[in-house]
Each structure stands twice: as structure tokens, then as C-alpha cells.
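Hi team,

Below is the intake form for DUF3256 family protein from Heminiphilus faecis. Please confirm the fields before the structure is written into the shared record.

FORM ID: S-0412
PROTEIN: DUF3256 family protein
ORGANISM: Heminiphilus faecis
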Amino acid sequence: MKRLINIAVVMVMSLAGMQNASARLTAAGAFADAPAPLFPLLDKNARLDMIDYFNSGSATPTQNALQGKSRVTALTPDDIKIAMTDASSYQISILPYGNDSIIAVIQTVAAPAHDSHISFYNRRWEKMSAPLFKAPDLDAWLTSDGDKDASNVAALIPFMLAKYDYDNATAVLTLTNNLQEFLSPDVYKMVSASIHPVLKYRWTGKMMEPMGK
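The structure came back. Fields below:
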């Protein structure tokens, strides 16, 4: 009998562990529980305040460590957008990944044009080692006209600048060409027909896969 009781206890504990592992991961919860180095301008209490303010319909901002104002600008169970400073913002999205979920973090900085990068983490905020997304190089941005004059286009564009935005409803990551914010009008006019205005990637459940141009 004692052995049966011990087995039952182990089974209950195992089930509890499985339920905990598959607990619903939300964007707000991920933001609140993120390690301090990821959002050094906001401690956990400040992040929770920001979520509460948004949910209550208040426009009250939260003071960050730079004495600036931070606020949540959009929130759904799977997405949260944060205006961190006047020159930086974040989007946290929850993505399905096998039988679990992972966290995608898009950071956008105006330096001076808006430019983004994306990182991926598991639910414990450990960086994913799998290659889930490869940022496109200049060749990927070239139109058919740009392909014909690739060397001259490359000479005029020192680096690409693109703003990222993920739409959980369609599982599409959109990269918007922001060169117009950086290049002089004359130079941009010379290269505008050579560079795609946007590139799109679809989340397959395993990676961000390029969509047709």
C-alpha cells in the first residue's frame, strides 16, 4: 500500500510539473519576468505599473532609470509594445514552437533612422541557440533593377536600415526599408528603385521563412 501511495504521489507531482511547463505564456508576463539586463531602464515593479496603467486605460507614463518616460502602447495576450524612450521601442511576441512557446523580442532604435533587430528566447529567457532568423543582407533587398547595378547600389548604401514589426494574427514579420530617413534626398532618389520597400517573413513554427517578394 505504501508503495502504491508513493507511486501516486510521484504521478501527481509529474502531472503538476507538466502543467506548469505548458502554462500559458503571455507577452505581459514575459515582459514582467524578463531578466534585468534585457530592460535595464525598468525594474520589475516599473514594468508591472506600466501594464496596470495600460489595462486601466490610463495614459500615465512610468519614469525609467534615465529619468525619461516609458509606457506600454499596445497589449494583447501574445504581443506587447513598449515605448522605452523617445528614441527606442520594443515589441515582445509569443510564438508557438513545437509543443511550447518562445519569446521574440524586437528592439528598434532611432540612430538616427529607425533600425531594428530581433532576438529569440525560451520561456526561461535563455537565448535560443537554433538559427531562427537570418537578417537579410543588401542582396536580399535588391529589386530586379538593383540586381543589374548591384555594385553601384552597394557603393551608395553603407548599410541597410529597416524597422521590424511582427503581426501575430498572420505570423508575418515585416521589415520596412528606412533608408529614406538616413540618406540624402538626392542619393535616396538614385537608389529607391533598386531597393524593395519591404521584405516579409512568415513564422513556420520553427523559423522565420522568407516570403516571396
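SUMMARY LINE: Confidence is low (pLDDT under 50) at residues 1-21.

Thanks, M.
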